[in-house]
Amino acid sequence: MVCAIWRALRSGVMISISLACLAMPGRASDITIFAAASLKTALDEVAAAFEGPTTTISYAGTPVLARQISFGAPADIFIAASLDWMDWLADQNRIDPASRFDLLSNRLVLIRHGAGGTLVETTGTALMETLGQDRIAMALVAAVPAGIYGKSALQYFGLWDALAPQIAQSDNVRAALALVARGEAPFGIVYTSDAQAEPRISVIATFPEESHAPILYPVAVTKGRSSTPVARFINHLRSAQARVIFERHGFIMADPAP
């Protein structure tokens, strides 16, 4: 799958890699984390509760961050929203395979602009009647995990071909969420955790788990960046304190505490 994604990125949808990110490593006492954009609200809170070195977190779409790491960006920890992109970095020997584990899972939901939206039955007919000819905000469907999962869910209900011309694609899932929150797209497909972070939208349907591949957030220490502070932050991610925060923000813990 990553080969197809990479071809799509090379065809023009890839975001430019930030040279500043590559050129400015953090202080030795800091921990630099690259994390999928959908983690922002929860991970910011988890990091704030960490009693240790300063954490610097860069958020973006998983493929953009993976490409930055492949070019040598100074990330200590990578938290992706895609098993495929973590596998891709593993194949390039860019992560420590012994450090890798699945931290979180998530659910995929259909949202609409405004609070108090009416729930929609998750059948192809009901979804089609609801969406009509309106725009649907999604992350990049050929590259970003949330977009890939969303396209799969629409294909599961036999709706993708009909709805594809209405899709408004964004660089990452939080950008898609923002389009719906501002009313620039009436509908969107995002994660449950994203929906909980935005009061200007309402969840009107939850896609069944069988409609897409499992949504998992793998974590790994990047090659050559292992240290005691990094190990402490990894343990913090799996702590009871972090679990409470992640679950409050709509995530599901995928890996039991060690």
Structure in words:
With 258 residues, this protein is of the alpha/beta class. It has two domains: 2-105 and 215-253, D-Maltodextrin-Binding Protein, domain 2, CATH 3.40.190.10; 108-211, Periplasmic binding protein-like II (D-Maltodextrin-Binding Protein, domain 2). It is 39% helix and 21% strand. The chain has twelve helices and eleven strands. The chain has helices at residues 2-13, 19-23, 40-48, 62-70, 83-91, 124-131, 145-156, 160-163, 173-181, 192-196, 228-237, 240-248, and strands spanning 31-36, 55-60, 77-79, 101-105, 108-113, 136-139, 167-170, 187-191, 201-206, 216-221, 252-253. The chain has a six-stranded mixed beta sheet. A five-stranded mixed beta sheet has the order 7-6-8-5-9, sandwiched between helices. Helix 3 (40-48) links the parallel strand 1 and strand 2. Helix 4 (62-70) runs parallel beside helix 5 (83-91). The radius of gyration is 18 Å and the shape is globular.
Summarize this, please?
The protein is α/β, with parallel strands linked by helices and 258 residues long. It has helices spanning 2-13, 19-23, 40-48, 62-70, 83-91, 124-131, 145-156, 160-163, 173-181, 192-196, 228-237, 240-248; strands at residues 31-36, 55-60, 77-79, 101-105, 108-113, 136-139, 167-170, 187-191, 201-206, 216-221, 252-253.
